[in-house]
Amino acid sequence: AATYTPLFAAGDIHVVGTDLRHDELLDIARVDDRTNVFHLDTGEVERRLERDPRILDATVTTSLPGTLRIAIEPRVAVALAGEPPTLVGADGVVIGPAAAGEGLPRLRGEDLSTGAATAAAMMSSNLRGAVRSIVVRSDGGIGVRLEAGFSADLGDRSELEAKAASLRVILDWAEGEDVRIASADVTVPSSPTVKLDDVTKVVPDP
Q1: How confident is the model at residue 205 (pLDDT cuts 50, 70, 90)?
Q2: Which band of pLDDT confidence, cut at 50, 70 and 90, is reported for residue 200?
Q3: How many CA atoms does the CB half-sphere of 143 hold within 13 Å?
Q4: Which of 36, 63, 74, 187 is the most exposed place for a label (fewest CB within 10 A)?
Q5: In 10 A of CB 95, how many CB atoms?
């Protein structure tokens, strides 16, 4: 019976790792300063928090008699989808409405979670800012449209991180050589090729 006394109330609650308002997060978790720390099901609190699309992972720990700690790993937006645009995480989960001027690539096609969103996640933030859109084609291949005005073929979903790095090499190469690219192919990331406006194919040195 003593474990149900106010001695074990969560009078000391720490939240780390999130920009969500403290009161909003506690509402999602369904805990407050009257929550009994001794009998709290931390796993259930974590599941409540992780049902919110803004939260990728939650870790809830207690320390008797009355301390509760909530550590949050937020779901990071890597792209935009839909109209009006919504923020999308690396796993294809829609996080919420996007503000104007987000500077993220638009996702096209149906397969966001294992295709376009994954490709966006493999890109550096710098590269994402240079990409206008990412599309999963009907054959499952992934195409990218660059703000520089050309398209790049990434091929299938293998080696997406290496393909993103190869695309970054192409952009840096084009800027350094002051050339205009008509299209690019990074389906083999170790041997990227580009087609210039004069139809000459070039393999930049990675």
Answers
A1: low
A2: low
A3: 10
A4: 63
A5: 19
pTM: 0.84
pLDDT digits (tens, 9 = 90+) for 94-130: 999 998 778 899 998 766 666 899 999 999 999 999 9
Report which residue type is found at 150: F
Torsion angle (degrees, nearest 10) of CA 195, 182, 147, 179: 70
Instruction: Say which residues have a Cβ less than 8 Å from residue 58's Cβ, sequence separation at least 6.
Output: 45, 46, 49, 50, 70, 71, 72, 73
List the strands of the sheet with 55-63, edge to edge.
12-16, 67-74, 55-63
